[in-house]
Amino acid sequence: MNILLTIDVEDWFQVENLRPWIPFCTWDFRELRVERNTHALLDLFDDVRLEDGTRKCEAKPGERLGSDSASPPTAADPGASLRSLLRPSGGNKVRCTFFTLGWIAERLPGLVREIAARGHEVACHGYSHRMCNGLSEAELRKDLRDSKRLLEDLTGDRVAGFRAPNFSIDKRVLTAVRDSGYRYDSSYNSFSLHGRYGRIDLNGGPKAGIAYRLGDDFFELPVSNLPVFHRSLGLGKHPMGQFHLPWSGGAYFRLMPLWIFIRGIRSILHDGGAYAFYLHPWEVDPSQPKMDQASFRSRFKHYTNLWKTKDKLKRMIELLGDCRFMGCREYLEDKTGYRQG
């Protein structure tokens, strides 16, 4: 069983949810916290212990698979970044794909290099977190091309993957991603009730594991969701079985009890053999600045349970310790045998 861990590397002020109150023209005046938060995730992936995961994740119906308990937030450790730079690279038991904004890479090139040096995949999240399906054709292709080149110059490795901000994918965007030299896209989220998530038709396409082959060497690798009335929830079959609950991470991970979330992951793994999860560095940062002027809905979605997220993520990985944690490119290489030069 494979767990595809993905991190969308963006800072607290760059999320679409807060854009009405934090326009792009103000970004250079905001506090950069993404480096410290990404280091915290890198350290977690280096340090987490997987040996005890197998027995704990096999629960009987109705049995809790752990808890959401976590220690209260503490003051930031000023030496964390320095210690992370002194850690030996390579040998990670947990590997991940970091979909990185070009805007971040320009300002924190050392962070991008460190992600790669620690054995993780660096992939592209666009330049300035603009909705891809709202860009003109020229803007879209320039964004895809320039941000890819920037990341490749920093890491010395080809960038294989792209994820559209806010999963803003459509057929036109997907074509541009392929034409720009990416090997895979990971922008499709099947949860249909979110107004910003894009739509593409994947029905009937050949698959490689949970990835859809859209060309000779181009794939769509969706994040994972759970069908409603799935047997794992004890609800049996229903005509709405094709409707999917959001089960891929982000705010849904923060809001849902961990034992329920793990149970859903187990069902997804049972059906497909792999599960794709996403999170953001700002989601492990309860001390980030608060936008009190934002709407209640936006504040609830952005700030709820931030203080629990880091410990909850660690516990999730431990409870799934019998699985293999990997990045997207590694998964595709395993499933297709293709190695990108």
Task: Write a short abstract of this structure.
35% of the residues lie in helices and 13% in strands. By secondary structure, the chain is an alpha/beta fold.
Order of helices and strands: EHHHEHHEHEHEEEEEEHHEHHEH
Radius of gyration: 19 Å
User: Within the CATH hierarchy, at the fold level, what is the topology?
Assistant: TIM Barrel
Q: How many strand units?
A: 12
Share of residues in helices: 25-40%
Query: What is the overall number of helices?
Result: 12
Low-confidence stretches: 52-92, 232-241
CATH superfamily: Glycoside hydrolase/deacetylase
Tell me about the largest β-sheet: 5 strands, parallel
Strand % is 5-15%
Rounded average pLDDT: 85
CATH architecture: Alpha-Beta Barrel
Number of domains: 1
The best one-word shape is: globular
What would CATH call the class?
Alpha Beta
Describe the fold and architecture.
- Strands 1, 2, 3, 11 and 12 form a 5-stranded parallel beta sheet that branches.
- Strand 4 (161-162), helix 7 (171-179) and strand 5 (184-185) form a beta-alpha-beta unit.
- Helices cover 35% and strands 13% of the residues.
- The longest helix is centred in the middle third of the chain and has 19 residues, at 137-155.
- The chain is of the alpha/beta class.
- It has one domain (2-73, 81-336): TIM Barrel (Alpha-Beta Barrel).
- Helix 6 packs across helix 7.
Keyphrases for this structure?
341 residues; alpha/beta; five-stranded parallel β-sheet; 12 helices
Could you give the topology of this structure?
Layout: E1 2-9, H1 34-47, H2 53-56, H3 80-86, E2 97-100, H4 102-107, H5 109-117, E3 121-124, H6 137-155, E4 161-162, H7 171-179, E5 184-185, E6 207-208, E7 211-215, E8 218-220, E9 226-227, E10 244-245, H8 250-255, H9 258-272, E11 274-279, H10 296-303, H11 306-319, E12 324-326, H12 328-336
Parallel strand pairs: 1-2, 1-11, 1-12, 2-3, 4-5, 5-8
Antiparallel strand pairs: 6-7, 7-8, 9-10
